[in-house]
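Title: Comparing notes on inverse folding

I've been comparing how different people in this forum approach sequence design from structure. To keep things fair, I'm posting one structure and asking everyone to reply with a full sequence. Here's the target:
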């Protein structure tokens, strides 16, 4: 109920009026049934505007830090994350990664929409980076279609490190669903997982205007931090 109120009566109408998002391909999102929206990731507001333009409830997996901060600001952040349909996950790896997978599978088992960023983190410079294979494992275990999504200009509206967005229009380009049912039962094959992931990244590259770089975005961030 809180999600519906925020999206349709409180924050949603205000955000649509201010930022006037344009959308191409909304008909490619299935009207019912479980599906994964696999998107590039340029800005924090990607997780706000993608659910805003899709009629159905969309859940995103968000790092647990957003839900555990203290004080009034922490409470406001947690309320906002819950209101935008985001679910806390631990990104520390190991058993935490397994728990994250199960959280996503639970959303899909309910026949809902799950939003995922295959790159695993926001792009540090607007380029499209190599996808993580965890998304492929979830796709094959759940046996659901994948809809590629390209967010456009969100980094210009709210760059990394900025607390408040600028006023401007953003775009969302939604591609045709991808079917990976031919790989059913092969989620344990790492070569298949890489193939599925690369196909998704190719689809994202075809939708948008981003330069593709075949390294992980997290690796680029680590190297930049070491040089800083």
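Reply #1:
Here's my take.
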């Amino acid at each position: 109920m809180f999600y519906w109120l925020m999206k349709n009566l409180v924050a949603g109408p205000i955000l649509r009026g201010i930022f006037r998002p344009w959308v191409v391909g909304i008909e490619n999102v299935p009207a019912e049934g479980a599906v994964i929206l696999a998107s590039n990731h340029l800005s924090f507001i990607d997780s706000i505007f993608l659910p805003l333009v899709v009629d159905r409830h969309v859940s995103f997996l968000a790092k647990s830090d957003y839900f555990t901060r203290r004080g009034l600001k922490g409470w406001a952040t947690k309320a906002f994350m819950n209101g935008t349909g985001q679910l806390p996950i631990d990104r520390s790896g190991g058993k935490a990664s397994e728990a994250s997978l199960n959280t996503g599978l639970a959303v899909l088992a309910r026949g809902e929409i799950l939003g995922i960023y295959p790159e695993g983190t926001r792009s540090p410079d607007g380029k499209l980076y190599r996808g993580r294979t965890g998304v492929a494992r979830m796709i094959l275990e759940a046996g659901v279609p994948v809809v590629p999504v390209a967010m456009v200009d969100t980094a210009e509206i709210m760059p990394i490190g900025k607390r408040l967005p600028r006023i401007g229009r953003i775009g969302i380009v939604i591609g045709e669903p991808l079917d990976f049912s031919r790989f059913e039962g092969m989620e344990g094959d790492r070569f298949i997982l890489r193939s599925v992931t690369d196909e998704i990244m190719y689809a994202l590259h075809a939708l948008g205007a981003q330069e593709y770089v075949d390294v992980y975005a997290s690796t680029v961030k680590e190297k930049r931090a070491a040089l800083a």
